[in-house]
Design brief:
By secondary structure, the chain is α/β, with parallel strands linked by helices. It contains nine helices and twelve strands. The strands form three sheets. A seven-stranded mixed β-sheet has the order 3-2-1-4-7-6-8, sandwiched between helices. The chain has a three-stranded mixed β-sheet with strand order 5-10-9. GO terms for molecular function: glycosyltransferase activity.
């Protein structure tokens, strides 16, 4: 009987080891589930708390722009929707800055919070004006007083569909995965700027710099590298030809990886009409593509439609108020886009009068 009791008794040390092992396995499983939901599925929703259980910090909304009418009218519409959504429930939006890289104040200084920085030296961008974006962020981060701990890098052609929480998870920034940013398919080119000793090409996220919510201190480290990589890529004929208009986006992705930064990939961060058909739970409408349809509501992309909305139709002056709505059958995203543009233009004072670029009033 004594032998049986001893055989059936479990050692306290063994119990402690088993308990620790169970806790460790459970912790790892929960961590993996949370990470997968946040990174891959885009289904994680902010509850207003950060990883420590405290209230999530605010982020500063920042975008780069020029003083051209084409850029100005987009900024005015974007700022309208920022103001409308900033204080709604679920928002972690802080202050707003239009980083104006034309080197001089313009007519929107009183209407939109703006910070003037210098463009790249003449000729350095080789006509690719987007190269001014990383250089503008470097100057702004060095010279401006920024209260928020985090920054949302946005663009003038972004519309806030609803308030955006701070999607960054602790020190890990959040970004939108672009289907056309494919580092692994361009490994030969990528290796010119991201050597093998830096790690596998799969460590480079399929993103651009916008939209991205990132801790300010991290962006301060990345931004100078982002400038250097952008200029080096532009100077390399093979890279310039291959990456084209998304070269600066690849430069940000590579620069982030060189600093060991990985992003939470949020597919719900943004939608892009006409390709995305439903608004769903997305936060931003990005209207970079032209939307062309016939009167049957059928997409005629690449061919000017009987009905169309394309921001490039308004290079020298803003679009008129009260644009016609799309014909029946056009996707919800396009309808929402036009309605949001119409609401903004109907409520922005002096919408039709601001047609010239420079000169502070």
């Amino acid at each position: 009987m004594i032998e049986r009791k001893n055989m059936g008794r479990v050692s306290p040390i063994l119990l402690a080891l088993l308990s620790f092992g169970f806790f460790f396995a459970t912790y790892n499983l929960l961590t993996m589930i949370i990470h997968n939901k946040a990174s891959n599925l885009g289904s994680w929703e902010s509850n207003g708390l950060d990883s420590s259980g405290d209230l999530k910090p605010k982020y500063h909304v920042a975008l780069t722009a020029t003083d051209a009418p084409y850029s100005q009218w987009q900024c005015r519409i974007m700022y309208y929707w920022y103001k409308k959504t900033k204080d709604m429930p679920g928002s972690d939006m802080g202050k707003f800055t239009r980083i104006l890289h034309s080197g001089a104040p313009d007519k929107l200084m009183k209407e939109i919070p703006s910070f003037v920085v210098d463009p790249l030296p003449e000729g350095l961008d080789r006509g690719y004006v987007v190269l001014n974006r990383p250089w503008a962020f470097v100057q702004w981060l060095e010279k401006a007083t920024i209260e928020e701990e985090y920054i949302l890098m946005a663009e003038p052609d972004h519309l806030f569909v609803k308030p955006i929480p701070n999607l960054a998870y602790g020190s890990q920034p959040a970004g939108y995965p672009f289907f056309y940013i494919k580092p692994t398919e361009h490994e030969k080119i990528i290796r010119k700027f991201y050597p093998e000793e830096s790690g596998p090409v799969t460590d480079i996220d399929p993103i651009g710099n916008s939209p991205v919510i990132i801790r300010r201190s991290m962006l301060e480290d990345i931004a100078p590298t982002w400038v250097n990589i952008s200029l080096r890529m532009k100077d390399d004929p093979e890279t310039d030809k291959t990456f084209g208009w998304v070269l600066e986006m690849y430069a940000y992705a590579v620069a982030s990886a060189l600093h060991g930064v990985r992003h939470i990939l949020r597919k719900d961060f943004m939608l892009q009409p006409p390709w995305d058909l439903e608004v769903g739970k997305s936060f931003i409408i990005h209207y970079t593509y032209g939307c062309d349809y016939n009167l049957k509501g059928e997409l005629t992309y690449g061919k000017i439609g009987e009905w169309r909305f394309d921001k490039r139709s308004f290079l020298s002056a803003p679009p008129p108020r009260n644009l016609s709505l799309p014909p029946p059958g056009v996707p919800e995203t396009v309808v929402r886009l036009v309605k949001m543009v119409n609401e903004a233009t109907a409520n922005i004072p002096g919408w039709d009068t601001l047609t010239s670029g420079s000169g502070q009033e």
